[in-house]
Write a structure and sequence with these properties.
alpha/beta; Rossmann fold; UDP-N-acetylmuramoyl-L-alanine:D-glutamate ligase; ten-stranded mixed beta sheet; about 15% strand; about 500 residues; seven-stranded parallel beta sheet; 18 helices
Amino acid sequence: MSLEIITVAEMRAIDEGSARAGVSTRILMQNAGRAVAEAIVQRFGQRPTAVLCGPGNNGGDGWVAARALREMGWPVWVETLVPRDALKGDAADVAKAWRGETYELGKSGRAAELYVDALFGAGLSRPLEHEAARLAVALPRARVVAIDVPSGVNGDDGNPLGDLCFEAALTVTFVRKKPAHVLMPGRAWCGEVVVADIGAPEAVLAAQNVTLQENDPRLWSLPWPEADAHKHERGHVIVASGQHTRTGAARLSARSAARAGAGLVTLLSPSDALAENAAQLTAIMLREADGEASFAEAARTAQSMVIGPAFGTSDAHYKLLLAAMNAQPRCPLVLDADAITLLAPMTHGLDARDVMTPHIGEFRRAFPGIWSNSTNPIEAARAAASYARCVVLLKGPSTVIAAPDGRATVNTTGAPFLATAGSGDVLAGLIAGLIGQGMASYDAASASAWIHGRAGEIFGPGLTADDLPGILPRIFNELAPGELRSKPIG
């Protein structure tokens, strides 16, 4: 399955391009409706089914699906929002071919065990109303199959249009996923998402030049050591520590970088925090920071550097950060937490190899106006990456990774238990650990977001940030080539 994500406008362009290429919209609709029926039959036993059809092409898909289900012996009827003679175009044609029972929406007087939501789809531009709104409240998600997206959900941002939308156990969409399938809260309301091939020509798809993808291990290649590797070949990561009593965040980053495979990890510590850090470290090396010169030297000699977790936000800390940023030549920087606060608002560009990892609050401070003027997190992250000229990983329920060249990835792994203090510090260390081994920054950020989310899924309730580094080996083991995976004893 393709990992590309397309907008509603791009889907319209694909429909139009397919017609010009000789694949009519009528054929696309027939294929879409049959794909919906097949997905239903594969997942549900025969049961009384109501197909709820709207006035447009989404409703047309529903009429075709109803006919296909009826031909397969299902007890199915159609409830239509508008009379059949009011339909136009392809939807009118396929509706005429339906020979089964037909009722006005919500007026069948029959109880279905499964409802197919073919009311509006991704192109809806206004809130649900009247009978559609009533059904959105009344129908349990376990009994709903949505065509394209659950009605009432904006296809481009995953938000409800107004206060209401359908919720589905299964959503069948076509050609590629849309933003609503991967962005919260739409992702939660879609349930399982099936992407059906409906015959759009590959050349038409390629003409869209899609640069948005769903995050997945197929998109990136992790750095793995050769059989004769030594630690200096696996990269040196330096993490800047905060002052006395503010050291734990940096240690989380350092441990995470080590778990990611970095051959050497050093904690750059203020003198007043040396003893505190030394008491907590074993495999992580410790170095005293003696001012701006030490930060410049670290940036010149390491393969990657983390600055920000509980770092501090004074003028002195700003000067230390600038010393690392201005060192020539220097390594890629992973800038998190306090480093983002120190740079806010962004007034100058960074290196294209740098990675910023703001949550939404930090993002708003660093990039004033971008969030409020963006339609969704994808657009916001892309605008910020272009402005800052670095990789931006926008953290949240819908984590988006964007590169300065316009590429973007939406991460869909994760669990709400990752919303805990220190979780982001682990993520920053993961990114730096992979960059330190030679991985491109955009790929490292994407891989780290996926792995970090997967760790939250594996651990589940009770997760704290201290737990995360210890889960990482299990995930890396699952991703490793066969010859590098752990071998059982005996």
